[in-house]
Design goal:
With 491 residues, this protein is α+β, with helices and mostly antiparallel strands. It has 19 helices and 22 strands. α13 packs across α15 and α15 crosses α16.
């Protein structure tokens, strides 16, 4: 048995098209098209270039044709962001980026005048983040109400791309679950919340479980590209949901970090946890494959590294990620640390300058060199991992003996090593392409080639090598650093 499917994976800074192949025992993936994802700041507003990204999908479809074809297509992206369509299916305005500055003001206004965070969390189970869809919609309602008045449909980005391909309207559960608009237990829209928000009900379509067939490629598109009208599968279209589907663990209680621009640190639950303790720890309940709950924390991950590199390279340094890692390792760890989830680090730009200012304000040594700033970033991410790990253990009442790290961030050996040492457990790193692999596996489940999620994970485990990082014998320095970190964040 040889099955081939096509997966598109969109990240915050790049995207790729990859062919997944399954021979009945093992799965493999092959990159056929990679492209940058370059949002644009226009008149102080931050947008995704959605039209150009769809062009990249078309390019991927053409390149896949050269490899002999595929039986289905699946698309995953980040969460919360959306496009609006009018009654004729045309885009209403540009698609805003979740890092747009207007969201912070809108979030605070919503919580002050419409619904407090305690009630919002009890209903939706979603952690506070100023870019959650519920707050983005409040920003539109208060600043650009005419966009909502002209809208007939709201589609999250993977659903929007599916619509561009098939002409079919649908909403994937895993993606919708990130919005802060779902009843976390009913797994459907919270209509009372939507009414309080003042957004028309008509724009929300029926929610479908991950793994359903959306439809076939539209004939006009097939004629344009001279390709066959293959089916499009609504995979676990939130990228973290796809990544978690590929965590190569057969144990019931597993902790994972999906490591990329964001680090998503969590575990799977059968039922949501909306306790006060979970809310105070800012843990979120998002949808996964086969109705599972992804109980996790969104941590500002390699975003700080990506933005710092961009800042330095604009100054003419021409640094690679390997260069930055080596420069960091030449410096003493834990001289200064920051709370990586502080809102000051959310917007793009001069991250190194903001790190220095944060250290100055908190009376810490101010890192000066590139290596010192990078060491500060590494240590700060790892300490946030430890804090989240402790929160998960306390709230779930469970002990975890290992952390599975997946995603592109695991290519950074320093981050994996620090995660093992700060958390005090072994880290199993791999596979790198977890998001794409999860996308592929859901397509194979939908196509009948793989039975279910448990079998999919066994196949992933048999198909890809993982690297294990064991904590050092003497962790005294890490324990002392963690105590100082807790004081810094007021824990």
């Amino acid at each position: 048995m040889n099955r081939s499917v096509l997966a598109f994976d969109f990240g915050a800074s790049s995207g790729r098209a990859m062919l997944g192949s399954f021979d009945g025992e093992k799965v493999s993936v092959k990159e056929i098209h990679r492209f940058s994802n370059d949002p644009e700041m226009i008149n102080g507003l931050y947008y995704w270039d959605i039209v150009r990204l769809f062009h990249e999908i078309k390019t991927g479809l053409l390149k896949a044709k050269e490899y002999g074809g595929y039986e289905s297509i699946g698309i995953d992206t980040w969460g919360v962001d959306f496009g609006l369509l009018d009654s004729k299916g045309r885009l209403v305005g540009n698609v805003y980026h979740y890092r747009d500055a207007r969201n912070e003001i809108a979030a605070q206004d919503f919580l002050a005048h419409i619904m407090p965070m305690e009630e919002l969390y009890r209903r939706t189970g979603i952690q506070y983040a100023p870019f959650n869809t519920v707050f983005q919609l409040h920003a539109l309602k208060t600043q650009q109400p005419y966009l909502l008045e002209n809208a007939e449909h709201l589609l999250f980005l993977p659903d929007l791309f599916d619509y561009f391909l098939t002409g079919k309207i649908h909403t994937d559960y895993s993606e919708a679950s990130t919005s802060g608009l779902l009843d976390v237990r009913a797994k459907d829209w919270d209509w009372d919340l939507i009414d309080k928000l003042g957004v028309p009900r008509r724009i929300f379509s029926k929610i479908s479980p991950s793994g359903e067939v959306v439809g076939a490629l539209e004939q006009d598109l097939c004629d344009e590209l001279m390709i066959d009208p293959v089916k499009v599968i609504s995979v676990a279209s939130h990228d973290t949901a796809s990544a978690v589907a590929a965590v190569p663990s057969t144990e019931r209680d597993t902790v994972y970090i999906s490591c990329g621009t964001w680090s998503l640190f969590g575990t799977e639950l059968d039922e949501p946890n909306t306790s006060d303790e979970a809310r105070e720890s800012n843990l979120t309940n998002e949808g996964g494959c086969q109705g599972k709950i992804r109980f996790l924390k969104n941590i500002m991950g390699t975003w700080l590294i990506q933005q710092s590199r961009r800042y330095w390279n604009r100054q003419g340094h021409n640094l690679s990620y390997d260069d930055l890692e080596q420069m960091a390792n030449a410096c003493t760890p834990f001289q200064s640390v920051v709370d990586v989830d502080d809102s000051v680090f959310l917007a793009p730009g001069d991250i190194p300058v903001r790190i220095q200012e944060y250290c100055r304000k908190t009376n810490q040594p101010v890192p000066q060199s590139i290596g010192e700033i990078m060491q500060c970033i590494y240590c700060s991410i790892a300490l946030r991992y430890r804090y989240t790990f402790d929160s998960l253990k306390k709230i779930t009442g469970k002990e975890y003996t290992a952390i599975h790290m997946v995603g592109g961030g695991i290519q950074d050996k320093t981050l994996c090593r620090l995660a093992a040492n700060t958390c005090g457990v072994k880290v199993i790193a791999g596979p790198i392409e977890a998001t794409v692999i999860g996308n592929v596996m859901v397509q194979l489940i939908a196509g009948g080639a793989v039975k279910d999620l448990d079998e999919a994970r066994r196949i992933v485990k048999a198909s890809f090598d993982c690297k294990t990082y064991l904590p050092e014998e003497d962790l005294t320095a890490y324990k002392l650093a963690y105590l100082q970190y807790r004081k810094l964040i007021g824990a």
